[in-house]
Specification:
Length: about 350
Amino acid sequence: MKHSLTRRSLLAGAAAGVAAASESLPTRPFGKTGAKVTVLAIGCGNRLWMAYPDQEKGVAALRLALDAGIRYFDTAQAYGDGKSETWVGIAGKDRRKELFYATKTPARTADEVLRRAEESLKRLQTDYLDVLHIHALKDDADLARIEAKGGALEGLYKLRDRKIVRFIGITSHAAPHALARALERHDFDCTQMALNAGLQGHSPDGAGYWKKPVPGRPAEFGQALPPPPHPGASFQDVALPVAVRKNLGVIAMKVTAQEGLIGAGESKAAAHTLLRYALSLPVSVATVGMPQLDFIRANARFVRSFKPMTPQQMSALSNRLAAANKVALDRRFRDHEDA
């Protein structure tokens, strides 16, 4: 298939979005875009390409997700160095009109964005992308590179103008304040951020210490803060309100902290409880890695009968999980590489 980055029209049926709700999982509006997406997406990072031992099994898992009603596939150029996009392209090639493809670029220059987008189109066996995100915003310095003249944002605007990409976005799992600034400043259609009950209250110094830093002193000698979680410094408290005010499509990720929050006892919760928390937030879709076929079936069943938590239930869960997990999660996602 030949692809051109000057192409001016989408394939027939692309604007219709996902398949009818009777065939898919329940849907929600994707912000102000006019599209609707299934409330559950399958995450195609290492919970796909590392969990399933070969292409045949990985593609089978994706096709099971399709059969279960999932229509949103969340992948990235860096996932398995293109392996994930390739598997998604194979699994969905006969059902592209039903599907919503979101991929992400690590590129930080416009030229590289355009080049890598061409590669994504080939691997995904498509002539357009539903979403292209700038992948993994790290901090304010990273944001400056993205928004500079000739930076990645310029490339995304070009792709959207040329209708190669329907919607543009940006993701982050480590920088709530930088993400909020990016959303305030620029014309994104959507955003993807780390949202789970254990992440409430991002540690104030960004390094996992529950103390206010004092200039010139090690963080552990800083001024003591009240007990965690600390409101006002998590993605949920800092970046999500900006996205909601601007009516962006919001994708929740790290819903289970890559299964790290799943388990018994006060410091853990059931997978469906964590998913319920995420979908009780003002989000369009939750993307979840599902490294076992049974996870795909169970999550799809759950969202068909989803009922939102009350604010009181959400607060109780986040207070419990954040107190036990917040410091470790801050450190983990600060250094986390999506690949």
